[in-house]
Write a structure and sequence with these properties.
By secondary structure, the protein is an alpha/beta fold. The protein contains five helices and 15 strands. The mean pLDDT is about 90. It binds flavin-adenine dinucleotide (FAD).
Length: about 250
């Protein structure tokens, strides 16, 4: 039978995507004893979200990561729309935030790597990869019993763990759910969500070589509307992602 241990921290975060990583870094900078549980053991392989807008860059600035991100990324100053082979118009990104007059493109997996490295500097060992939160309870009046209010269980995931299935029990003052769209923390907390299901199909792929598009300025992000499909190219430093939106049959 797998052994289990009990550990404690002030804030236990579930989910090592960009939300959980940023929160963990900000708390660690304030000296908070934070632990972040992430069930994956490997970084994600695909670009996912690419555009970092000025407010996100301001957060990276607070974490001391903005200059690295800007040096690694590509600056996009405008979006331009094309239809039937003709340019229909362009929207400049330069006036919304004059001090940062661009959207930076950097693949999300690279942003996550920068955040993970920063968290390791700020709080070595805080990022616990290969651990999945499986359940938690809130102890009423826990402090009167000398206990922290959150009792949580994490299980070592199978991939890469030397001891898969082993459990760790956590006590924490606060549990934060940054565990994505199917959040266990949200569901177990009874927090409802209003979601609209869109029947359209959205396909995205990473490419080493951007498809050649003549007469498109390098610092523009183009959108093409060739009915019924809308597609766009997101250039990043060593490749690009292309996204296609295909409307559902109505
Ligand atoms: C193909 C694709 C393209 C995208 N393009 C864009 C885009 O262009 N622009 C944009 O704004 N957004 C885009 N997104 C969405 C963007 O990736 C998400 O909004 C973003 O990842 C959300 O970050 P998050 O940290 O909140 O959640 P997530 O990135 O979903 O991270 C949640 C983390 O929690 C972990 N986890 C879940 N449950 C548990 C558990 N019980 N225990 C431990 N860990 C757990 C997961 O492994 C995951 O790492 C795209 C997404 C995809 C898939």
């Amino acid at each position: 039978m797998a052994a289990s241990t009990v550990r404690s921290c002030d804030v236990l975060i579930t989910g090592g995507g960009p939300t959980g990583l940023v929160l963990a870094c900000l708390l660690a900078m304030e000296g908070v004893d934070v632990v972040l549980l992430e069930r994956r053991t490997q970084p994600r392989g695909h670009s996912r979200a690419i555009g970092l807008h000025p407010p996100a860059l301001a957060v990276l600035e607070r974490l001391g990561l903005a200059s690295t991100a800007v040096n690694e990324g590509a600056r996009v100053h405008a979006g331009a729309a094309y239809s039937r082979g003709r340019r229909q118009g362009a929207l400049s990104f330069e006036r919304a935030w004059p001090e940062t007059p661009f959207v930076l493109t950097l693949p999300q997996n690279r942003t996550e790597a920068l955040l993970s490295e920063r968290l390791e500097q700020l709080a070595p060992g805080a990022l616990q990869s290969g651990w999945e939160l499986t359940e938690f309870t809130e102890v009423p009046n826990g402090e009167q019993q000398g206990r922290q209010p959150i009792q949580a269980t994490a299980r070592a995931t199978n991939s890469g763990s030397p001891d898969p299935g082993v459990e760790t029990h956590w006590e924490a003052e606060i549990l934060n759910g940054a565990d994505g769209p199917h959040s266990l923390v949200r569901r177990m907390s009874g927090i409802s969500v209003q979601a609209k299901v869109v029947d359209d199909t959205y396909i995205m792929g990473d490419f080493a070589q951007p498809p050649p598009i003549p007469n498109i300025a390098k610092r523009q992000r183009p959108f093409f509307w060739n009915q019924p499909v809308l597609w766009s190219r997101f250039r990043y430093p060593d490749g690009c992602a292309v996204g296609w939106r295909i409307p559902a049959q109505r």
